[in-house]
Design a protein that fits this description.
The structure is a homodimer of 302-residue chains.
Chain A: E1 5-11, E2 15-21, E3 27-34, H1 39-49, E4 58-65, E5 68-70, E6 75-79, E7 84-87, H2 89-95, E8 102-106, H3 107-119, E9 127-132, E10 136-142, E11 145-146, H4 177-181, H5 183-196, H6 207-215, H7 219-243, E12 247-251, H8 258-270, H9 275-280, E13 282-285, H10 292-299
Parallel strand pairs in A: 1-4, 4-8, 9-12, 12-13
Antiparallel strand pairs in A: 1-2, 2-3, 5-6, 6-7, 9-10, 10-11
Helix pairs in contact in A: 3-10, 5-7, 6-7, 7-8
C-alpha cells in the first residue's frame, strides 16, 4: 500500500463517518455528519465537513455505502436505509471536487478490506468477515484481494437462508441468518417473548441489554442468544465448507456478545466430519471494531 | 492455455477415467479402469492403462480425486468412497513415472475448471459449478481462476445446510443440500415413501427412473422432485448472494432432471429482493456433461 493519507467515508443509514486514514489503517482524524436524505445535499454537507482538511495532500477518496453499489460505475443502485435508488455518486463527488481517485464500494466489503489490512495486517489469504449489527452484512477477501463478484454485490452473508421455515426477512425471503442474528430481529423476538410471558418490556431492547440480561442468567435472554448462536453456527459451517477460509472475523456491535454466541455456535460447527476446512479456519472476534468501515473505504484507494 | 496434449485422470469412487485432452478441452482418447482399493496397486494399474499412449508427447498429468485433496503436497487426505486416508499420491505417481508436471485436485473442483474452459470457453469470470450425482459436489472459478481456499477444500456446496431439522447426512450434519438432492438420498426417500404407501419398490430406484415417473405424472415422484428442487432453490439463492456469480452451471447425471428441478427452484429464488445479484447470474445446465472431470483435471496442468 502506497504511503500517504487517504480520505475514507462510511455512509451508513443514520450517520456518515469521515476520516483521514494512513496507509497502515490508522485513523488520523475523524468527523461525523448526520445522514441527510437527498444525495446532492448530503454530498454538499460532506464537502463542508472535509473543509478543515483541504490543505492536506490526499491520495484519494474511498466511500463505503450501506447498499448495493456498482464499484465500476460508482453508482449506488439501491440503499434501502438511505432510500436511494440509482444515485450516480461518483458524478456527484467529482462535481464537488473530492480528492481523486474516487472509489465506491458496499460498506461491509469495505469493512472486510479494513479488517484485512488494519486488524489482521494482511496475515490472512482467505478471509470471511461477518458484520453483526442491526442487520448482518459480510465481505470476503480471497487470495489477498477484495472479492466483489459480477456486479459488486458479493458477500451478502446475512441473507443466507438458515431455516426455510424461519421468520420473514426484510429482503423478502424467510429464515435468513439476519432474522436470527440481526439486532433488530433479536429485539423483536425478545419483545414478543417478554410480552407473552407477561413481563415488563424495556423501551429500548438493544443487543447490549439482552447480553447483560443473559449474563445475569435471565432464561429468556439466554434462549434468545442460543437461538442466534445456533444460526451463527450453521452459517459458519456453511461458509467454512464454501470458502475454506483461514480466518473468519466477527465484527460489529453484536460481536460483543461473541463469548455467548460462539458457545452455542460451536456444537453446530462440530457436527460435520469435514475436518480439514474446519481445522484451517480460525474464528476470531474483532478487537478493533469501531472504524473498520471508514478505514477500509480509505484503503480501497490504491 | 499452452497448446498440446495433457493426460487427465478422474479418480472416482467406483471407476477411474483416463483421457488424452487437448488444450481446447477436447477428449482425444479415453479409457476406463475399475477402482482398486489399494493406492499402490491402483497406480500400477493406471500406469498399465496409459501404456498405449507412452509414445505421445504429453505436457503433464492432472488428477481429480473424489475426496479431500491437498493440491500443494499432492496428498489425498481423505477419500471416503475409496477408503483412503493420507495417501501420498504425488509420490506414487512420480515413482511410476507419469509424465510431469503432476497436478492433484478435488474432482469437483477439477470438473469446474473443465466446465470453465471446455464448455463455457472462458466466457465467465465468476462461475459456480454444482455437480449433481450420487452426492452433490461443487467447484468455483473466481476472477477466472480456480478457487481452492486455505487447504484446497473450498467449494463443498453439497454440504450447505438447507434445513437444520432435515435428514441426517453422511458428513455428520443435518439437512445438507445433498440430503435433498443427492441421488442416493433421493432414492432412499422415494423407497421409504413407496413402502409407506404400499406400492411396489423397484430394485434400482435411480434419479433417472424417478424423473421418468415424474414426467408420467406420478404424484410421489413429483413430490420428491419438488422437495429436491426447493432445496436447490434455497442453495442457489444463497450461492448467488454469497458469490454474485455471472454463471451457475448444473452438471452431473441428476442435472438431466433440471427442467423439473428448476421449475420448483425458481420460486425460492424469486423471494429475495436482491435483484442485482439475481439478475447477473445465468443458471445454465451443462450440455457437455460427461467428461468435465477428466478434462478439467488435464487442463489443470499449465
Amino acid at each position: 500500500m502506497k504511503p500517504g493519507v487517504r480520505l475514507g467515508i462510511d455512509l451508513g443509514g443514520t450517520a456518515v463517518k469521515l476520516a483521514l486514514v494512513n496507509e497502515k489503517g490508522r485513523v488520523l482524524e475523524l468527523r461525523r455528519v448526520d445522514t441527510s436524505k437527498k444525495p446532492r445535499a448530503l454530498v454538499a454537507l460532506l464537502k463542508e465537513a472535509v473543509r478543515p482538511w483541504r490543505s492536506r495532500r490526499l491520495l484519494g477518496t474511498g466511500v463505503g455505502v450501506a447498499g448495493d453499489v456498482d464499484p465500476a460505475r460508482g453508482v449506488v443502485r439501491f440503499a434501502p436505509n438511505l432510500k436511494w435508488t440509482n444515485v450516480p455518486l461518483r458524478a456527484l463527488f467529482r462535481a464537488a471536487r473530492f480528492p481523486g481517485p474516487l472509489h465506491f464500494e458496499n460498506d461491509a466489503t469495505a469493512a472486510a478490506w479494513g479488517a484485512y489490512h488494519a486488524e489482521l495486517k494482511g496475515r490472512s489469504r482467505n478471509l470471511v468477515v461477518m458484520t453483526l449489527g442491526t442487520g448482518v452484512g459480510g465481505g470476503v477477501v480471497l487470495e489477498g484481494r477484495v472479492y466483489r463478484g459480477a456486479t459488486g454485490s458479493a458477500g451478502e452473508l446475512g441473507h443466507m437462508v438458515i431455516d426455510p421455515a424461519g421468520p420473514r426477512c426484510g429482503c423478502g425471503n424467510r429464515g435468513c441468518l439476519e432474522t436470527f442474528l440481526g439486532g433488530i430481529h433479536m429485539a423483536a423476538w425478545a419483545r414478543n417473548e417478554l410480552r407473552r410471558s407477561g413481563r415488563h418490556v424495556p423501551e429500548e431492547l438493544s443487543p447490549g441489554l439482552l447480553y447483560q440480561m443473559a449474563r445475569r442468567g435471565d432464561a429468556l435472554a439466554l434462549r434468545m442468544w442460543r437461538r442466534a448462536g445456533r444460526a451463527l453456527g450453521v452459517a459458519l459451517s456453511n461458509l467454512i465448507n464454501i470458502f475454506n477460509p483461514d480466518t473468519v472475523l466477527l465484527c460489529g456491535g453484536v460481536a460483543g456478545a461473541s463469548p455467548l454466541l460462539l458457545r452455542y455456535a460451536r456444537p453446530e460447527l462440530m457436527r460435520s466430519r469435514f475436518v480439514t476446512a474446519r481445522g484451517a479456519a480460525k474464528i476470531r472476534v474483532s478487537t478493533d471494531n469501531q472504524h473498520l468501515g471508514v478505514v477500509g473505504a480509505a484503503l480501497l484507494v490504491e
